[in-house]
Write a structure and sequence with these properties.
The complex is a heterodimer of chains A (321) and B (297).
Chain A (H helix, E strand, L loop, with lengths): L3 E12 L2 E13 L4 E5 L6 H9 L7 E9 L2 E2 L5 H7 L4 E4 L3 H4 L6 H12 L4 H14 L5 H4 L9 H13 L5 E5 L7 H18 L2 E5 L3 H7 L2 E6 L2 E7 H6 L4 H7 L40 H5 L5 E3 L2 E3 L9
Parallel strand pairs in A: 3-8, 3-9, 6-7, 7-8
Antiparallel strand pairs in A: 1-2, 1-4, 4-5, 9-10, 10-12, 11-12
Helix pairs in contact in A: 4-5, 7-8
Chain B lengths: L1 H17 L2 H6 L5 H11 L5 H13 L13 H36 L4 H15 L2 H15 L15 H27 L2 H8 L4 H30 L2 H6 L5 H10 L3 H29 L11
Classes of the chains: A alpha/beta (321), B mainly alpha (297).
The structure holds adenosine-5'-triphosphate (ATP) and magnesium ion.
C-alpha cells in the first residue's frame, strides 16, 4: 500500500470574481522509502499541493475536491485537532529557508524536545537524549554542546540539518520537503539532499521532494512528476522522464539540465511564461507556448495516459499529431 | 551619565532663572545691604558653572538643596512624596500590562470575533480620551453616582483604584494595540508555519513561540511607558488630589521653588536612564541574537 495517495486534488482560492483554481485534479502515489520529485516553474502549484496534504493551506485557500489518503486513511477532511496530531508525527515538513524556519528565541534542543514531546510519550530527559542523538544523526559536531545553542549560532546549511532533524524526530511516514536546498549555497546543496535521502532510506520514510532544480531531482528522486498550471503533465520514473520526456513542456524542462553529454541548449528553452490563474487557456494550458501545438490542443484538454515508459497529458502521438 | 549631567544643568539653570530665592526669603521690602549679604551667604555671586558644580557635588552626596517654599531639605520632600507616586505608577503599570497584553494577544488570535471588535473600538476611545476627562468621568460614575470608590486622597485601600485606572487606561490601550500589531506580524513568520507543520498545539504556538517573540519589541515600550507614568502622573494626581511627586511639582512651580523643580527633573531623567539600562539588560537576557554566537558552524 502506498504511504501517500493523492486523488484528483483540487485547491481553490475564493476571490471577488469567483474562484481561482491553483491545483486542478492532481493525482499521484508515493510508496514507502520512495522519493517522488515534484517539479515545475514558479507558480505551478507545487507548494500548494504540499500544503494541502499537511492541511496548512494559506487562507482562504481550500481543498475543493479529490481525496488525500495517508496509509489508506483519508486525511483531507479531518477536524483540526486530528490533523495536528498527524502533522509532525506522521507527516514531517521541511521548508525552503532555514534561516527563518527556526524560532530565534529557543535553543535547537528546546525545539526538538517540544516537537518530540508533542507526539511521543517521552520524559524531558529522554527527549533531550534523543535530541542530542538526532543532532549527531544529521551531522552536527559536538551535539551534546550544540543542543543548547540558539539557531543564530548555526550556519544556513547547519540550520537546514536541524530542520531535517525537526521534521524527522517524531519518525513520520512521509516527509514533504519544499525546496529544501534552494536557499542554500551550491556547495552544500548536495550534502543536504544526500542526508535527506539516506535518512529516508534507512527508515523507509517516503519523500515528496518539491523543487525546480532538475539537478537535485536527477540525483535524488525515484520518480518525478512535472506540474504545469496546476496540473501534472507528465509523471514517470526519473530516468524515463529525463531521458525520454514525452510532453513538450517536460522536454523543455529537461533540456535545461546541464550534463556532460548534453550541454545546456539555450535555444531549446521554453519561450513565454506560465499563464496566471485567472487566464488559463482552454484546451491544453501549455498550447500557447508549445512548439508542436495543433487544433485539438486549443479546444480539448488532454488527460494523463500511458505513453510507453511514462504517463503524459498530451495529444501528440494520439492520432492527429 | 553625560545625559544626566546635561539634563541636570538645564534643570538647574532653568530653576535658577525662574526663582529668585532672595526675593522669596526677604519679601518685597528688602534693603540693599540685606540683599547683598544674603546673596553672598547663598553663594549666588559666583558664576553659574561654579554653582552647578557645587550643586552636582551636593547631589552626589544626597543633598538637593533647601526648598525655598517649605524651608526643608529637598531630599526629604522627595522622600515624602515619592512613595505615593511609585505606588500609583506601580499599580497602574501592573494593571496596564496585566490587561493590555492578554487583550492584545486575544485580538490578534481571534481577529474577527465580536469581542475583538469591542476591544478595538474601546481602545480607540481609551487612546483618544484626555486623562483628566476620563478621571472626571470615573469620579462621576463611581464616586458621585454609585458611591463605591473614594474620589480623592490616599487614605483607604480603595483610594488608588480610580487614579490607577485613569493613569493605566492610555498605557493599557497602547500596549494592547502594540501587542496585537506585533503578534499579527509574528504569526505570519516562517517559524510559526514550521511550528504548525511540526504539529505543536495552538497554545504552544501562540503563547510560547509567538508571544515570546512579540514581547521583545513590546518590552521596551512598556518599560519606557513606566517612566512616562511616573513622570507625567501630574494630571491624574491633580484630579484625584493624590499626594505624589506630580503634586509636589505643581506646587513648586506655583511658588517658583527652584531646588524642588530641578530635583524633580533630575529624578525623572535618572528614572529614564535607569529604565533604558534595564531594558538593554533584559534584551540581552531574552534575545540570543544580541549575544555573541558561541562557536561558528
Ligand atoms: N494565498 C494565496 N492566495 C491566492 N493565490 C495563491 C495563494 N498562494 C498561492 N497562490 C497561487 O497559486 C499558484 C500556485 O502557487 P504555489 O505556491 O503552489 O506555486 P509553486 O509551484 O510552489 O511555485 P514556486 O516555485 O514559486 O514556489 C500561484 O499561481 C499563486 O498565484
Ligand atoms: Mg513553492
Amino acid at each position: 500500500m502506498p504511504v501517500l495517495s493523492v486523488r484528483d486534488l483540487v485547491v481553490e482560492f475564493p476571490n471577488r470574481r469567483g474562484v481561482a483554481r491553483a491545483v486542478d485534479g492532481v493525482s499521484f502515489e508515493i510508496d514507502p522509502g520512495e522519493v517522488l520529485g515534484l517539479v515545475g516553474e514558479s507558480g505551478a502549484g507545487k507548494s500548494l499541493t504540499g500544503a494541502a496534504i499537511v492541511g496548512l493551506l494559506p487562507p482562504p485557500g481550500r481543498i475543493a475536491g479529490g481525496a488525500i489518503l495517508l496509509d489508506g486513511e483519508r486525511i483531507d477532511a479531518l477536524p483540526p485537532h486530528r490533523m495536528r496530531a498527524i502533522r509532525g508525527r506522521r507527516i514531517g515538513m521541511i521548508f525552503q529557508d532555514p534561516l527563518t524556519a527556526l524560532n530565534p528565541l529557543f535553543t535547537v534542543g528546546q525545539q526538538l524536545i517540544e516537537t518530540m514531546r508533542a507526539h511521543l510519550p517521552l520524559s524531558h530527559r529522554q527527549a533531550r537524549e534523543r535530541a542530542i542523538a538526532w543532532l549527531a544523526e544529521v551531522g552536527i559536531a559536538a551535539p551534546s554542546m550544540r543542543v543548547d545553542a540558539y539557531p543564530n549560532a548555526f550556519s544556513g546549511g547547519m540550520r537546514q540539518r536541524v530542520a531535517i532533524a525537526l521534521a524527522l524526530c517524531a519518525e513520520p511516514r512521509l516527509v514533504i520537503a519544499d525546496e529544501p536546498t534552494t536557499a542554500l549555497d551550491v556547495s552544500i546543496q548536495a550534502q543536504i539532499v544526500a542526508l535527506l535521502r539516506r535518512l529516508a532510506r534507512e527508515r523507509g520514510t517516503a519523500i515528496l521532494l518539491i523543487t525546480h532544480d532538475m539537478g537535485v531531482i536527477a540525483e535524488t528522486a525515484d520518480r518525478v512528476a512535472v506540474m504545469y498550471a496546476g496540473r501534472i503533465v507528465e509523471i514517470g520514473s526519473t530516468r524515463a522522464v529525463i531521458d525520454s520526456p514525452s510532453h513538450p513542456y517536460a522536454d523543455g524542462l529537461m533540456a535545461s539540465i546541464p550534463s556532460l553529454d548534453r550541454p545546456v541548449d539555450r535555444l531549446r528553452q521554453i519561450d513565454g511564461a506560465m499563464p496566471r490563474l485567472d487566464a488559463i487557456p482552454a484546451g491544453c494550458a501549455f498550447h500557447p507556448r508549445c512548439p508542436s501545438a495543433f487544433d485539438r490542443c486549443r479546444v480539448e484538454r488532454p488527460e494523463l495516459r500511458d505513453v510507453g515508459p511514462t504517463r503524459s497529458a498530451c495529444w501528440l502521438g494520439q492520432g492527429h499529431g | 551619565m553625560p545625559v544626566l549631567l546635561v539634563v541636570g544643568f538645564i534643570a538647574f539653570a532653568l530653576s535658577d532663572f525662574v526663582g529668585d530665592p532672595v526675593l522669596l526669603y526677604l519679601g518685597q521690602d528688602q534693603t540693599q545691604e540685606q540683599r547683598e549679604a544674603l546673596i553672598r551667604q547663598l553663594g549666588r555671586d559666583r558664576p553659574i558653572f561654579v554653582r552647578y558644580a557645587d550643586y552636582v557635588w551636593g547631589v552626589l552626596h544626597g543633598d538637593f538643596g533647601i526648598s525655598y517654599a517649605a524651608r526643608e531639605p529637598v531630599g526629604q520632600l522627595l522622600m515624602q512624596y515619592l512613595p505615593a507616586t511609585l505606588e500609583l505608577a506601580g499599580i497602574a503599570s501592573a494593571l496596564a500590562v496585566a490587561v493590555g497584553v492578554p487583550m492584545g494577544v486575544y485580538t490578534a488570535i481571534h481577529r474577527n470575533t465580536l469581542l475583538s471588535r469591542v476591544f478595538m473600538i474601546g481602545s480607540l476611545i481609551g487612546v483618544s480620551l484626555p486623562t483628566f476627562m476620563l478621571g472626571m468621568l470615573l469620579i462621576l460614575v463611581f464616586s458621585v453616582w454609585l458611591g463605591w470608590l473614594p474620589s480623592f486622597g490616599r487614605e483607604t485601600v480603595l483610594s488608588p483604584v480610580l487614579p490607577a485606572v485613569t493613569l493605566a487606561m492610555f498605557q493599557m490601550t497602547m500596549i494592547m494595540r502594540l501587542v496585537r500589531a506585533e503578534m499579527l506580524e509574528i504569526l505570519r513568520a516562517e517559524y510559526i508555519r514550521f511550528a504548525r507543520a511540526r504539529g505543536l498545539s495552538d497554545r504552544a504556538i501562540h503563547f510560547s513561540h509567538a508571544l515570546k517573540n512579540t514581547l521583545v519589541p513590546v518590552m521596551t515600550i512598556i518599560a519606557l511607558q513606566f517612566g512616562g507614568i511616573v513622570a507625567f502622573s501630574l494630571v491624574t494626581e491633580t484630579v484625584f488630589e493624590w499626594p505624589g511627586l506630580g503634586r509636589l511639582l505643581v506646587k513648586s512651580v506655583a511658588s517658583a521653588d527652584g531646588p524642588v523643580m530641578s530635583a524633580y527633573l533630575l529624578l525623572t531623567a535618572l528614572l529614564f536612564v535607569t529604565i533604558n539600562l534595564v531594558v538593554d539588560l533584559l534584551y540581552f537576557a531574552i534575545d540570543p541574537r544580541l549575544r555573541l554566537p558561541r562557536g561558528g558552524a
